[in-house]
Amino acid sequence: MALSTSSNFALPDDAFRAVVEAHRDLTDEQSADFDAALVLILANHIGDIDVLREAIALARRRMIDGQQQQQQQQ
Questions:
Q1: CB atoms < 10 A from the CB of 19, how many?
Q2: What is the helix, strand, coil percentage profile of the chain, to 5?
Q3: What pLDDT, on a 0 to 100 scale, did the predictor assign at position 23?
Q4: Tell me, what's the pLDDT at 71?
Q5: Measured distance CA(63)–CA(69) in Å, rounded
Q6: CB–CB of 2/51 below 8 Å?
Q7: Fewer CB under 10 Å: which end of the chain, C or N?
Q8: Nearest to residue 22, comparing CAs of 35, 41, 36?
Q9: Number of H helices, E strands in the chain
Q10: Chain mean position to CA 36
Q11: Residues 6+ apart with CB under 8 A from 19
């Protein structure tokens, strides 16, 4: 199974809203814990270590790229 990076949701805005709403009324610590739990649940659902590794690498690249862009704007 290859990592899918295009939207698989019929209503992607609804999916985004659901995740955002799940954080409502949580402290920063609770929000971080929630994110970690959600990631582990979804990683287990995927059940493919190669796809998980690819997703981890992509997420790290995006974070690093985002940080570099912020530094360039300063």
A1: 11
A2: 75, 0, 25
A3: 97
A4: 81
A5: 10
A6: yes
A7: C
A8: 35
A9: 3, 0
A10: 10
A11: 38
